[in-house]
């Protein structure tokens, strides 16, 4: 770990005024500290933001508002979340160990870095870590890598389970900087790698996530997160699906679908949603819609199984959700 300076601002204004281009915000530290120990991230200055007033879970006509510093475990256990947005609680509980969920914050979860082994090994090239150095995953160990949204510069998957659920629900993310505050759809917050995989999101230097708002909807209560992985705990997804349905009897009135473990960002599937709306909630409908889930997929030597796995994961999630009362 390289040397850095450290401070603990007492207000959001102070934090934003102190932040610069080579500054990192520290909340739970479950990603940042690991990467600093590996010398993957080496900020010159670290700002501990845990004393900032960025907590709380409340609901109004615009939806549920969650502060960026709320711990994952507290959000997953909250009555409003469990009753009205079960997909969020499920995604959080499947994300990590209990110890990590107690420490990790909501804002930090949305900003966690990829688990690609080449990114975390500073002895290997990585365009995400060192632009222009290359992507050894293209022809190397790539079983867990992306088949959607990838480029010749990067095929790393996005690691957040929570982000997949939030993108499916149309969540808004709130940002603040010393200059202004802004709000945008979480789906627009993440960037595709293209030729600049080191730019993972639209955060500006010194900008801070202050919270999120998940909108209300008749489909939110009927929602589910399914995660397929090599083992049942402490493992990242090979494929995952966040699904939400509004049903009129057995007819699908509205659908929200996003997937993870297969793409370079949380991946919304509007073509699948369109194929579901207006049709009967049957396995045949789900299988037909799931064929659109892998439109544009590009496989590598060791992840050719992922498109089929994704389609099966999506069908299973939709069947299970549609059968719930």
Automatic annotation (TrEMBL):
PROSITE patterns: FAD_PCMH (PS51387). InterPro entries: CO_DH_flav_C, CO_DH_flav_C_dom_sf, Diverse_Substr_Oxidored, FAD-bd_PCMH, FAD-bd_PCMH-like_sf, FAD-bd_PCMH_sub1, FAD-bd_PCMH_sub2, Mopterin_DH_FAD-bd. SMART domains: CO_deh_flav_C. Residues 1-219 form the FAD-binding PCMH-type domain. It holds the Pfam family CO_deh_flav_C. It comes from the Bacteria. One of its GO terms (molecular function) is FAD binding. Keywords: Oxidoreductase. Transmembrane segments: none annotated. This is Xanthine dehydrogenase YagS FAD-binding subunit. It comes from Paractinoplanes brasiliensis.
